[in-house]
TrEMBL record:
GO annotation terms (biological process): amino acid biosynthetic process; aromatic amino acid family biosynthetic process; chorismate biosynthetic process
Any single Pfam family the record assigns to this protein: DHQ_synthase
Record's catalysed reaction(s): 7-phospho-2-dehydro-3-deoxy-D-arabino-heptonate = 3-dehydroquinate + phosphate
Protein name: 3-dehydroquinate synthase
InterPro entries, per database record: Dehydroquinate_synthase, DHQ_synth_AroB, DHQ_synth_fam, DHQS/DOIS_N, DHQS_C
Residue intervals of the 3-dehydroquinate synthase N-terminal domain: 73-184
EC number: 4.2.3.4
Keyword Metal-binding found: yes
Superkingdom of origin organism: Bacteria
GO CC, any one term: cytoplasm
Amino acid sequence: MGEKRELTVELGERSYPIYIGEGILAEAGKLFAQHGISAKSPVMIVSDEAVAKHHLPQLQSVLKEAGFSIVTAIVPSGEGSKSLAVFEDLVGQGLKAGMDRKSTIVALGGGVVGDLAGYVAAAYMRGIKFVQVPTTILAHDSSVGGKVAVNHPLAKNIIGAFHQPELVLYDLNTLQTLPQREVSAGLSEVVKHGLIWDAEFVTWCDENADRLLALDPDALGYALYKGCSVKAAVVSQDERENDLRAILNLGHTIGHALEAVAGYGELLHGEAISIGMVGSAMLAVRLGAPEEIYTVTKHVLRRVGLPTKLPEHLDTEAIMDAMMHDKKFQEGTMVFIVPVALGRVEINKTVSSALVREIVEELKREE
Ligand SMILES: NC(=O)c1ccc[n+]([C@@H]2O[C@H](COP(=O)([O-])OP(=O)(O)OC[C@H]3O[C@@H](n4cnc5c(N)ncnc54)[C@H](O)[C@@H]3O)[C@@H](O)[C@H]2O)c1
Ligand SMILES: O=C(O)C(=O)C[C@@H](O)[C@H](O)[C@H](O)COP(=O)(O)O
Ligand SMILES: [Zn+2]
């Protein structure tokens, strides 16, 4: 069995641990008790169909054995479940199961389940505890930091809250059942954490791309630990995105618009963000940064199997419109995260929409 790692998201009285390792799920009962999860009120596990098939039985039996009374809610797999309709259904299931203010919601799944279940936890009876049990590579990002939300047809994550989990249990064994396309999509946010914070880690991702794609537990454990560490460091300094936290949005100004225009399905989040990060690198070069930023960004994203070309059939004006509905459109301008060197980015609020339109068109011409 590989190394077990632990780190803390430092947020004063709301600080919480992230446990990463092979076989962590077996310790869920003990860790829940240690971190104040009540066994006197029902605990709701929220998962999706694909994840439940592989990993729900183990979590259910470990928690039951530890004396927790479990309610289970399964939602359809995919981005479509991040909706107000599914949110309302989960609230109804919670009420029918007798969940009260001391109940806890456990999100067993990827970013979709984490964001959705987290938002239910933030709103149910004005807020109850929740635990993140991420089962995708991408969810090293979504399970840490407390951004929880559902989508509106016009814009991603537009109905949401900041609500931190009590703990994050990341069992690397669960990742072994991931489809290959989801492996690559998850690596998008791993690479992002390098691009915004740590140039050496970008090089490491390039050199270890094959091991990551093959789900080598040692490589995965290290990459997810590094990604979670960057995320924790940023969130600890700016929990509610007043300033620094915006850097975690590298690639998301264009990426979120692509997801919305493509109808939340054609492009996975990680794929849309990959294209968006190439767009940000192009923008950086137009603003005077070294060409290397674009070539390295594109190279490493391709190495982990990600798309870098914007699908030509997505309408440029619809993409521009979608950007205006995003949270990154503020006080009449688009906020872009722009690389200034490898591993370093800045927040730019002065990019003209004409230049953005040019970048979108250029992304369609990518090889
Ligand atoms: N809150 C945040 O800070 C944050 C950060 C990044 C992304 N997100 C959000 O996360 C979402 C994307 O997350 P995701 O990529 O994890 O998608 P996802 O949750 O839809 O999971 C991807 C797919 O893989 C399946 N799956 C998950 N785990 C599996 C496993 N272990 N074995 C087999 N199949 C499995 C799921 O059923 C789904 O079909 C987006 O909605 C994005 O906006 C949020
Ligand atoms: O945690 C953050 O902050 C992020 O920006 C992480 C992103 O990867 C994630 O996709 C997040 O949900 C985007 O947030 P949003 O506020 O732009 O919707
Ligand atoms: Zn993201």
